Amino acid sequence: MNSQAKVEEKIKAFGMSNAMMLQDLIQLQQRSSIDLGLEVSLDRSVAADYYPQFRETIRYDARQMARHYELFYCLERTIREIVASALEQAEGTPDWWSGNRILPALKTDIASRIQRDRDSGFTLRSTDELDFSTFGELSQIITGNWDVFGALFSSKKAVEKIMSSLNSLRGPIAHCSSLAEDEVLRLNLTVRDWFRLME
Asked: Which residues contact 191 (CB under 8 A, 6 or more apart)?
């Protein structure tokens, strides 16, 4: 084997070692729920069969939007947890939804959405009624129960304003449209505003 071939073999071995180490780190990240900043790619069989068929510009946009989706997902789940936890504590029961804290019309709308999910034949997205509420409805729940949430948030008007902004920003993220640069900035500022409400 000449020296050029030896160098090429070493480079290949180095590349394979790094690829294997990266895969091990990704698996560690997934098992331990530690964010090492490593992106987990699509399932290999799906990626091999379908991903190359999408235009590169669409794949690039998807990677960019994934960051915004992740941020929004975390924020929305956190808001729902805050609402559920505060109302459970106020009512002294995990079955607070059955009490008087939620308007009957909203309960009816939510029950209808749950039934639509059941009728679809797919797995029910959640067993928690709160997960079927919109951002606007979450805002109404918070402001309509200000005796509970006034201790958590600094201003009812600010909650309404920020939740309205989040609802507007949610559209492009949830419906696979790209966020304009200004809207990315607005999303980041609105998330900061949300957390500032709880200071």
From this structure: 71, 75
Rounded CA-CA distance 138/192 in Å is: 18
Taking the C-alpha atoms of residue 177 and residue 62, their distance in angstroms, rounded to an integer, is 9
| Ramachandran area for residue 119 (φ above 0: left; ψ -120 to 50: alpha; else beta) | alpha
pLDDT of 81 reads 94
pLDDT in tens, 51-72: 677 787 887 888 888 888 888 8
Q: Please determine, for residue 88, whether its predicted confidence score (pLDDT) is greater than 90.
A: yes
What length does the chain have? 199
- Spatial CB neighbours of 178, under 8 Å, sequence gap ≥ 6: 61, 64, 65, 172
- Residues 178/172, Cβ–Cβ less than 8 Å: yes
Does the pLDDT value for residue 106 go beyond 90?
yes
H helices present in the chain, as ranges: 3-32, 44-49, 56-91, 104-120, 135-144, 146-149, 156-174, 181-197
CB-based burial label for 102 (10 Å; 0-12, 13-18, 19+) = buried
Percent of the chain clearing pLDDT 90 (strictly above) = 44
